[in-house]
Every structure is written in C-alpha cells, then in structure tokens.
Amino acid sequence: ADRTALILELVSRMMGGSVGKLLIGIATALACLTTSIGLTSTVANYFEGISGGKLKYKPLVLVSAIIAFCISLFGTDKIIVFAVPVLSLVFPFVICLVFFTIFDKVIKYNATYIGAMIGVAPVAVISALSTAFAIAGTAEQNPGIMGINDKINALPFGALAMPWIIPAVVCALVFTVIAFLMDSSKAK
Questions:
Q1: For a 10 Å CB count at each end of the chain, is N or C smaller?
Q2: Spatial distance between the Cα atoms of 148 and 138, rounded to a whole number of angstroms
Q3: What angle do CA 172, 175, 180 make, to 5 degrees?
Q4: Nearest to 169, CA basis, from 103, 102, 113
C-alpha cells in the first residue's frame, strides 16, 4: 500500500479505533466523490463551452470520468510525482493573478498583469524544473538549474516557497510605469 493510505489508516485507528477508521473512510469517500463530480462537470461544461456546443456535455463527462479512472490506477504516490512539478509551475501564476485581481478596481493598466506574469514566469519555470529533477533523482546531472534555483530561493519569501513575489511586483510596477508613460504621451 502507498504511504498516504498507511498514514491515514494509522492516524484514524489511533484517534478513534475501528469506528474512527470507518468514519474517516466514509468522510474520505464522500470528499473524493463530491470533488470528482464537481471537477468532471466543470471539465465537461468548459469543453462544451469552448467548442460552441459541438462537443456535448454527456459524452464529455464520460470521457473525463474514464481519463480520471485511468489516472487513478497509478496510485497516489505516482500521481504526486507527476503533479508536484506541474503544480509548482502553475500555482505561482494563479496565486499572483488572484492577488492582483483583488486590487482590480485600482489597477488601471492590463500591462500591470502582463508584467506580473513576466516576473513570475522564469522563477516558476526554474522551480518546476528543479522540482522535477529532484523527484526524478537527476538533480546532480542538472547542476545549472539546481544552482539557479538555490539563488532564486535565496530571494525574499523564498523560505516560504514564494520567491516569485518580488520579481512579480517589480515587473508589474515597471510595466505599469511604461503603460502610464505611453498613455500620457498619447494624450499630448
């Protein structure tokens, strides 16, 4: 069995005995079921929408469920090995966009968002690559990326796994100033 299942079983047995183990099992099953239903319907809605209705909802739900089932056969440990580098690439962009969207009413230029994404990009790519190399056990064969990643993690907020914050803010400010200057030169 994989480590995740063993840890969950041990903790539930220690905290509640066989009843606790049963309750954790039911709670986990329901949480997984509701999440998978939500994700499957979201995927089907999304692809039906972007295809302009050419792809129908019900077949998309079926295809999505089959793909999810096939992925689930790999087990939690193998899914995590694949997902962690992908998530370490995607999360900085998403977190940054969510943060800037909070201040959408005061952000005047789209260039601010573009600058933030440009600031995040190299940091996220290097981080994802170094994570993938570390998981694959090939970090020693890629000293360049690993060295750059060490320098990136030395940036402020690197200890919090968010070294992209300063590059995002700096690039957002630079792009905002450029957009302001271009806008004011057009006004003349």
A1: C
A2: 15
A3: 120
A4: 113
Q: Which amino acid is at 178?
A: I
Q: Give 65-79 pLDDT, tens digit per residue.
A: 999 999 989 888 788
**80-90 mean pLDDT:** 89
Residue type, 69: F
Tokens describing residue 187: 């006004």
C-alpha distances out from residue 129 to 79, 135, 142, 161, Å: 17, 10, 10, 14
Residue 159 DSSP class: G
Q: Which residues contact 125 (CB under 8 A, 6 or more apart)?
A: 89
Contacts of residue 177, defined as CB under 8 A and 6 or more positions apart, other chains included, come to none
Alpha-carbon radius of gyration of the chain = 22
Is residue 15 helix, strand or coil? Answer: helix
With contact defined as beta carbons under 8 Å apart, do 88 and 76 qualify?
A: no
> In this structure, are residues 155 and 163 in contact, taking their beta carbons and an 8 Å threshold?
yes
pTM above 0.70, yes or no: no
By the 8 A CB rule, do 119 and 164 touch? yes
The token duo for 80 is: 């995590």
Task: Name 175's Cβ contacts closer than 8 Å, sequence gap at least 6.
Answer: 109, 111, 112, 114, 115, 116, 118
Q: What is the share, in percent, of the chain residues with pLDDT greater than 70?
A: 98
Q: Report d(CA 66, CA 71) in Å as an integer.
A: 9
